[in-house]
Amino acid sequence: MAVARSALRKWEKVREFALGLPGAAEEFPWGESVAKVNKKVFVFLGVDDGSYPLGVTVKLRDEAAHAHAMTCPGAEPAGYGLGRSGWVRIPLEEQGAPAAGLLCDWVEESYRVIAPKRLIAELDGH
Q1: pLDDT value for 48
Q2: pLDDT reported for residue 42
Q3: Which of 17, 93, 94, 114 could pair with 73 in a Cys bridge, judged by C-beta atoms 3.0 to 4.6 Å apart?
Q4: % of the chain residues with pLDDT over 70
Q5: In whole numbers, what is the pLDDT of the chain averaged over residues?
Q6: Phi and psi of 25, rounded to 5°?
Q7: The whole model's pTM is what?
Q8: Spatial distance between the Cα atoms of 32 and 5, rounded to a whole number of angstroms
Q9: Which long-range contacts (CB under 8 A, 24 or more apart) does 78-83 make?
Q10: Does 3 have pLDDT greater than 80?
Q11: How far apart are CA 11 and CA 6, in angstroms?
Q12: In what order do the strands lie in the sheet with 87-91?
């Protein structure tokens, strides 16, 4: 149960971080939590009700970040063809899953790929 608890804590930190970014909003298409900016998803958060393993899916254009994310235990290109455009699903319940800080860095990277320039300027102004 300790793994599940620590995974849930990480998930909550990542969700809180994502929703704290300028212009971010949470929506629930397909019954899953996503964080959007400018009506576009920048992180898929999935569900936290235990019906599906906890994980986050982010878009990483930076090759080094993408390669690093793909080395995480259980990480895989996102389904539905999203993997081809740089989306990576990172499970949080695996032994050796990335720390919340690194996940938040990746969420920010994903946000920067999708957010309009004025919101990125606002983020950089903080």
Answers
A1: 84
A2: 98
A3: 94
A4: 97
A5: 94
A6: -145, 145
A7: 0.94
A8: 20
A9: 78/44, 82/57
A10: no
A11: 9
A12: 24-27, 33-37, 40-46, 55-59, 87-91, 76-77
User: What are the tokens at 26?
Assistant: 């949470």
Torsion-angle region of 54 (φ positive above 0: left; ψ -120 to 50: alpha; else: beta): beta
Q: List Cα–Cα distances, 8 to 31, 38, 44, 50, 79, in angstroms.
A: 18, 27, 15, 10, 22
How would residue 51 be classed by pLDDT, with cut points 50, 70 and 90? confident
Tokens of 121: 């300027």
Contacts 24+ apart (CB under 8 A), 76-80: 78/44
pLDDT tens across 76-106, in order? 999 989 999 999 999 999 999 999 999 999 9
Domains for the chain: give ranges and CATH numbers: 2-118 (3.90.1150.30)
pLDDT of residue 49: 85
